[in-house]
Fold these 3 entries.
Entry 1:
Amino acid sequence: MRTLKFLLQKEFRQIFRDPAILRIIFMMPVMQLIILPWAADYEIKNIKLAVTDKDHSGYSKKLVSKITSSGYFQLTSYESSYNASLEKVEDDEADLILEIPASFEKQLVKEDEATLFIAGNAINGVKGNLGSAYLRSIIQDFNREVRLEWIQLPKFSPQTQIEVRSSNWFNPLMNYKYFMVPGILVLLLTMVGANLTAINIVKEKEIGTIEQINVTPVKKVHFIIAKLVPFWILGLIVLTLGLLISRLFYGILPAGGFLTIYVFAAVYLLAVLGLGLLISTYAATQQQAMLISFFLMMIFVLLGGLYTSIDSMPVWAQWITRFNPVSYFIDVMRMVVLKGSGLADIKQQFGTMALFAVVLNSWAVLNYRKRS
Amino acid sequence: MKPQQHTQAKQKNGAARRQFFSFVKKELLHIWRDKRTLFILLGMPVVQIIIFGFALTNEVKNSKIAVLDQSKDAATASLIAELNASRYFDVEANLTSYKEIEAAFKKGKIKLAVLLPSQFAEDLKHVNKASVQLIADASDPNVANTLTNYATAVIMDYQDRITNKQRLPYSINVETRMLYNPQLKGAYNFVPGVMAMVLLLVCTMMTAITIVREKEMGTMEIMLVSPMRPQMVVIAKAVPYFLLSSINIASILLLSVFALEVPINGSLLLLVTESLLFTLVSLSLGLLISSAAASQQVAMFISLVALFLPTVMLSGFMFPIENMPFPLRMISNIVPAKWFYIIVRSVMIKGVGLAAVWKETLILTGMLLFFLTVAIKRFKIRLQ
Amino acid sequence: MASDKIITVDHLTKRFGVFTAVDAITFDVHKGEIFGFLGANGAGKTTAMRMLCGLSMPTSGKATVAGYDVYTQNEQIKKSIGYMSQKFSLYEDLTVKENMQLYGGIYGKSNAFIKEKTAFILEHLHLQDEANKLVGSLPLGWKQKLAFSVAIFHEPEIVFLDEPTGGVDPVTRREFWNMIYQAADNGITIFVTTHYMDEAEYCNRVSIMVDGKVEALDTPAMLKQQYQSATMDDVFLKLARKATRSGD
């Protein structure tokens, strides 16, 4: 135990003697947490619309002005040829094209039926899809108004109708920040933690100091614990800073209480730091360690369920996410911050994370060899 | 210039060139000897493009929902069956009371609850009117929104089928086509994005780290006392990574076309040239970072931890830039990946030519020159 | 006489794939002697030493250090030895004092012992003023002396020195060897590799490794006589010429 104390003392001293890295550890998450959540807004608005109007009738103009006044769309071009509109899409100046064919008004009035064409840029499939859905619903409204102009009001026979009422729980104002901020905090915490430990042991390998340690009777487990503890504490400080910013800048107060978050984070950090140490015991150079941890981080971050939904992934990818600690913490954050879930609700995630922590750290201890 | 001077200058040039190439050769040997790193460098983009190409999609599907059916009649049964049959929903739980809804949400698996009141079928039949309540877990507002829309659409379809839909006068029909990506595959959007990200981060990180590593180990000094100009020493270190990146560009494009079935609609030559330009931008950013970082750890933190999330979030492939508030739209302009993402999307998927992306190309070239000038200047100052 | 032998090595071998770095070497080191372990670069000195320190697993053969078996009791061995490698290996971002504290603590010494010993060493090396300076800021010669002091800080039975004087000036080398003698006087067995042949003269006994084998082992005087040479340098050259393996 006494050896451990000396080793810990050493690690702490080394960390605090490198102000450059310490500054980055604290500044970077703070800055990113203040800036990045503002970028995350999936809400489809300001859809850039190019209109091809071959009709130039009263109705076509009315329709266009109705669309632009809806607030969802931004009219970026109004041309008579489809190719001109298509060019706008190619130049990224339009997301959607609405084509009003010649004699649209005439057909609608004389033949009771007319057709409009929508073409959406579907590279970002969802945007194309949702944008055209909005456009269709505005056209439907317009259709109703047209009908009213021609038909007396009460003429409709009562029709079977299912009324759909919807409500949004946990985040009734649909504030994206409540969802993104804790998620981004998890990502930052993970990257800082895993990267710090990933290059720590291998750094000693590169400099040669590890050999001096290996020739002493130090126990492997003590060595690993001494590496783990300081970064664990740093991680908790980063988390605290992050929660503070969430409160001050975004007004986020976890409904399920801070305790739940800290309890989970304590175990989570052990798992993530253990993973870093494991990478470190395998890598021969810092460069290798960084490449491996970068590779894993990319998978963890992009398949973590923050940016895209895990349910929508193919089954094999969902299996990958089960081994992704980030996906558990993001899940837990969402539950605790917004739904008010307590420790009892996150039992399962907690258990899995504890298992990760034990396995990864034991693996790191086993794989750290004092003798080649 | 006299002919003699001319030959001298030529000889000097020749010597400088030979020196330069011998340095490049040394760097290549370093990388070649370290098979593990080489393997990761070349294998990583392959694995990532496959994983992300298939796994990432903005679409919301197979979402788990819970049903609270208080009516339990034929109408509700068929409505539930219809919800379950749609690709968007999997009915995961049948609840028996309103109180259970919150618990189901809190356990975290259920994204939407559908409440069918008692006497649903009766009401439909006799009053011609019935109601369905949807409760979405809005902790992820995007998913909540989308699922509510999808569920409403399924219910409306159901309604249309049970009422023999009468044809109304003065109807406007709408025909919708999806350009470029009619199957709405996620890969069309994410392949350009992942490509930008992988190239940027790998190139930046690798150059930054190898140079700082030499500084740390003291071997940089040995090279700097050689007759070669210090700028050349630094650039020689980036050349092998440029070559490696070319291989990575090739493998990413091959995989996109043959595994992910994302077509290259525009000119392959233009696409490759733009990718190489972007690689150069990333390498010079790496040089710049290496001139500022004192240790490999710092270099890594700047090139990875500090660049990663901003690249993901501000380059436009995850979140539409036009939705961002003004300051962030401005910040996104300095993210190199944003411009490359636009270029790849335009050339690869829309199939447009240089005329459509000249502005973005110019911006990337500007960034390249800026990073390179500043980096070299800083190296000069440091070395004096 | 068995108790007099503090290191016994019997046909100790280390192979890396098809390459035999250390080829069935056999020798003993007596308690309290300064044992010079010589050889050209690449002859296998460092590998042999690393096996004895428990840093490298032998392929075959037998060896004991301080009575412990190198295969099974390598952690016990570590309690009885000190080690200083050719790569300077104190923590450069810790101060002189902190390094001593760390290694004292790792070997389980009491705080009082650490304090006393640190003061003693600092005084001895005239480093009192540098006690709270980062090791990284010291000149190389001082670092080497400091590394040696740290290697024997916990008063081990044996200390292994792997080319301890590489890259330092002649004066410092001289001082360094004075420190070695002092340690030997205090009863510490010294096991030292070097390729400065003048240093070989300072050793009680010298072994010379060529191509992974021990080719000669005796006192410097006997070796010079045996090889009819005036200096250890000549002895070494005569032996090293036989080498087929090229050093790097």
Entry 2:
Amino acid sequence: MRRLRPYAVPYLLWMGLFILIPTIILIILGFTNLELYNIGVFDITLVNFSIFVQDQVVNALWNSLSYSFVTTLICFVIGYPVAYYLSTLSEKKRKILLAMMIVPLWSNMLLRIIAWEKIFTPTSIIADIFGISLDLLGTPTGVLIGMIAMYLPFMIFPIFSVLEKMDYKLIEAAKDLGASDLQTFVKVTFPLSSGGVVSGVIMTMLPAMTSFVLPARIGLGKINLIGNIIESKFMKEVLGSSGASINQGAIISLLLMVFSVISFVLITRVDKEGETLI
Amino acid sequence: MKKIVFLSIISLLMIALIGCTSKPKLYVLNWGDYIDLDLIDVFEDEYDVKVVYREVGSNEEMATLLQANSSPYDIAVPSDYMIDKLKTLGLIQPIDFTKLTHYEDLTVIPELYTLYEANGFSDYIVPYAWGTIGILYNTDNANLKPLIESVGWNALFEYGDTYDVGMYDSPRDAVAAALLYLGYHVNSEVEAELLAAENALKSANFTAWGEDNLKGLVIQGTLDMALVYSGDYFSEYYLALEDEVEINFDYFVPETTNIWVDAMVIPTSAQNLELAHKFIDFFLEYDNALQNSDYIGYAPTFEEIYDTMVNDTEYSYDFETFDPFPQGTFRQMYQYGSDSRSEALVSIIARAKASN
Amino acid sequence: MMKLSLKRKIIRIIGLSFTVLSFLMIFTPILVILVLSINASTKGYSWEGFTLKWYLELFQKDVMREPIMNTLVIAFASTIIATVLGTMFAIGINALEKKKRIQMMVINNVPVVNPDIVTGISLMIVFSLLSFTLGYYTVLIAHVFFSIPYVVLSIMPRLKKLDPNLYEAGLDLGCSRISGVFRVILPNISTGIISGALMAFTMSIDDFIITYFTSGAEYMNVSTWLYATLSRGRSFTPAAYAYNIIIFAITIAIILFVNLKRDRKEKTV
């Protein structure tokens, strides 16, 4: 197989181009006054960090952390039993149910958000037809339900894939040795599935933290996450000779990268090659 | 396996085909559903070109696309204050009016012309549509109409505890509404006035900050009233007529308000100046201008078109709600102002949103 | 013993009810989209009667044709390119010694773990540095970029199970390096390749954020088109719901078909 090693080389170059270079540029943008769309001389400065004292940014950061934390927690509480249950089914049922869980992901995300908007409007079409009248637009509960529904599959898949591959002989062995169901679960099953849990947490938390359409629509613009700030910095406020908004956006993006790096450290602890990520 | 290879080749060919046409291209940057696409087809046939039409959701996005120079746009349709800014940034160029053979035949509505001439960009634009900002309210509650008509802007800022009020999630419009409510000019740069506006936005207790979704929220009764563009009202009004549903909303314009104007401009990135002028001229041709204005349904910017749409029985648009600038009212048009003011506006609504 | 089985029953019931709850949460929006797609009202504020006109509009009017075509073409093309490249890279990575392999996998996982918004901005920056005109090709590159890691991830476990001697044996029997890959390796990892391709397709067809940051004037997919019409556009049409339901129906049909076919095969064997 050694002869096939060259196949990996272009990948390294490709990833270097699209990961390393932009990261370096983001760092430069974040710590200088370089103008992305008008590249020229620049000075090193820490002025872009001033955004971290702005109320709206602090507020968005706090919202991002708290909403993504609660979303992830609830997704885990719901998702783990689901993954466990699915893994106990026959192969045929398992495959169909799993497929059924993937199919909705092919539905457009924005349309699904509009759908939740309708569900949370008390006098909407949903009330007309199903007689269900929920008034959750603009509330934290509404945003959380929307986020959980959006990201739940990403918690279930990794945990399921670990549980599915688990060697049941180990569990039987534990039971043969006299462990109770609970003991078996706590001492054997759960530790063996921890890789999936970590992946699930990461795949739920990071997207939840950075979503920007969902909070803007379901939260009626009152609940802003860090994603809303980044979008605004890169796509809506770019004007002006200072160009500072992109540099501020770069700083926030770098902060998100810190979260990614932490995630990486966690993942490589339990699952070196990240096989449980999907 | 063979099938897969075959399919792959077909798809790759499709991409290659879609990616390139030999015809010259005209890049147009506009709002969604803001032009009659049938007319674009006619234009494409007439001049044997391909019009690449990009829709955006905000002036800022439009400006970002022009500034990023990601594509060589030949035509854009930004609004007043953004035209002002694009001009200062040197991102748009003066229009060569001698190339517009139909411009002579039409007269820009004088009140509108005066407003934008005062802003100093009359050489750079051909106005496209104009209107106001005002209050959209739900008429199911009979108390709202007399209230809003008697107190005007105060309705948005002083009745947040009694009613559900929505505010436009756009720095310039939200702050303008607050300034108008306080009796200041929409372009105020006075720090104390901006601070007062911020406090008004903070204490107004809005139920929602939104964009396009505000009108739907009002019509569905989630909100009682909201700040919207006149265009928001018109589009809902026409849709309700089309769907033949009951109209349970109305639009009120206080005596003093902001006038917005969207206009065709030619970015400096334009690769095809000749064609860009032809495009503008095409939409100035009387029949085309009429058809396009009828399609988009906003107030047309030329007297001749305006008169036809209001008086001709074939169109008979409602004069009362149609005229953005009736006699005896006061209108103010946005200017870009300084960069620091723009940044201040962004921070003001960000803080106001965080505190609501 | 009775007590134990009762406990198991309770666990099963919890698992089952949470599964039902999950499916409810995931499918409710789809149901709402279905309702909106057959509702006569344009804005969908209320139920105005049954209609199929939005489905007809999808085929008759131009409004959504371009975004839909763009979405599908990019989804198919990026899936094919990403699957081919991803398979090649995975085979290469698998052949590396352990330490290097782990390093490559960490790099591979960067786009998977990174929030989409960071990936989108990164790509936008690279394209702007290279002065690429944003459009069709940049979106294609972007989609290939974020799809490859999923393909690699789906294939790696299969490759690891593969006996390395098999390939060497193939070579000894006179296969060239490339035909060895085709004859020995690919048939053994085909399920991984298929599920990788499926992942890539799933990622591409629903992508909004990365496309939003990397598309210029000439390219608009369903998501970016929707986003523009949602903020200040008025061109929104329930045909968008109809499109979504059609895609949904096709995928369900494919899944049922594949499953039925497999069943029949199993029965006849």
Entry 3:
Amino acid sequence: MNTPRLEARALAKRYPVGNRRKGAMLHAVDDVDLVIQAGESVGLVGESGCGKSTLARLLARLIDPTSGTIFLDGEDTTALSQAAFVASPDRARIQVVFQDPTESLNPSFRVFRSIADPITRLLSIRDPAELSDRVHRAADLVGLPRELIQRYPHQLSGGQRARVGIARAIAVEPSLLILDEPTSALDVSVQAVILRLLADLRERLGMSYLFVSHDLNVVRLLCSRIVVMYLGRVVEVAPTEQLFTAPRHPYTQALVAAIPDPARRDEKRPRLDGSPRSPVDPDPDTCRFFGRCPIGTERCTQSAPTLEPVGDEHFAACHFTTVVSTERGDP
Amino acid sequence: MTFAGFARNAAYAFGENRLTLVSVVILAALVLCAIFGPLIAPYDPLMTDGTARLVPPSAAHPFGTDALGRDILSRVIVAARLDLGMAVIAALLSFAVGLALGAIAGYFGGWPDRIISRVMDTIMAFPLFVLAMGIVAALGNSVLNVIIATVVINLPFYCRFARAEVNVRREQGFVEAARMGGNGAMPVLVNHIVPNILPPMMVQVSLNMGWAILNAAGLSFIGLGVRPPTPEWGIMVSEGASFIISGEWWTFVFPGAALVLAVFCFNLLGDGLRDLLDPKRRV
């Protein structure tokens, strides 16, 4: 098998909370393994606060993990600290498209400078003609009209700003693009256009995508494999279609059932009651989903389930995946 | 920004705000006096004339003469260089040092922040004018020491301001994006954050400039800093003050008016500068 483009092993990020002496830790991302193959598009879904944005920032090396390693094309990038990684040539290989295109553009930079800055920094291109050429090429790729390049961000529409954000990320020719809910701040009509653009870019440039979202439909459109997170842990990994037709983890099942569908209008849906467990110092022997889980039993408080294969390329972290699957009538 | 672009923005900003235009005109006049003062002044500002002491304003002496028969108009004009010069140098120095210290404190936090903030708090704990008097008295009576004192007492305002402005921007999306684009800590701070805090800082400089003028003039007024017979607005007001009772009003009104005018124009300029430097108002 080829070396994966990105591989994360036992990645964790914990933040100290409250009184330092008590040593309470918030487990934002806990023991996550993740593989992204070259050219693959992986979706990362989960509810607000489940740690998906933190995971994206860890993988993008914007923050240092508490423990664990990240391999980029087989090289351990965690050998360098985040501050040192910024200056390394590998920085250009992972780029991020941020959630809010307005916030992520420097208000005092014209579009040209916003796109040109990473090119000069990461690719050390200082020749004005070549720089301008690259900026224009990136703008053309994302369909940003050339006359907008000399504008300030406040003079652009939301969709145009999103294009600038994408242009800036792809201008340095990354091999992995992390998209952190790139469409959540946009109008629905603009969302569709930007998603189509992203799908098109991936085909043309052959990048791998990690698409972070809380919207399953958006992820379904773009990704071939989906990773579901709950409270800092990966609870299910499956190829997209399989995840939608035969979800194994009860959390994923509730998520999939919650997608609005006119055909199932009058059907009763499984609903998740209660609120998530606290991410501060979670009990290592209790399933993170216990308490909200419709099928949780005492066994779930005695040992926490780990990710186990439940099918072809399909993994779930639940003691009752077999029970669940027979209930749903799968083989 | 190209010069043509700047001119266009300036025309727009001043067109929007006529008061700014007024302040720019006054400032231009003051700057002209500061540069060409000795050439414009009708008389030698130091020349005494025993036959023309305390002459009221007339065609020969539009602002009258003082107790030694010196022409007040000439002295007011020539004093512009010293007063504006001290204020501009002091304001720019405290701006530069305050911005650097405040930006470091706001961006890095931790112990640099704690040290810088406590030093600034210590300066603020004194009545500032008394502190300035103390500094000049301790370092010696000279223009340089007046400038140093003005820098020191203005420093906390710039520093705290810069610290607060950097602090709110430190976590913003564009800063993370800049790190993504290969910028280390210093390039992020200098190239990405500081340009965004310059517009509010420049407003602060302009407002502070008026205060710096008053401070320098105030020190001279109480006999610290610049010494007679050097023409300086504060000294002139101080010398003229003894004639308030006897009714020779021109001896202190005109230098005082020059001070008021300078402070007033810098305060007005603050607003205009903000319009000019804020990228959101650029066309």
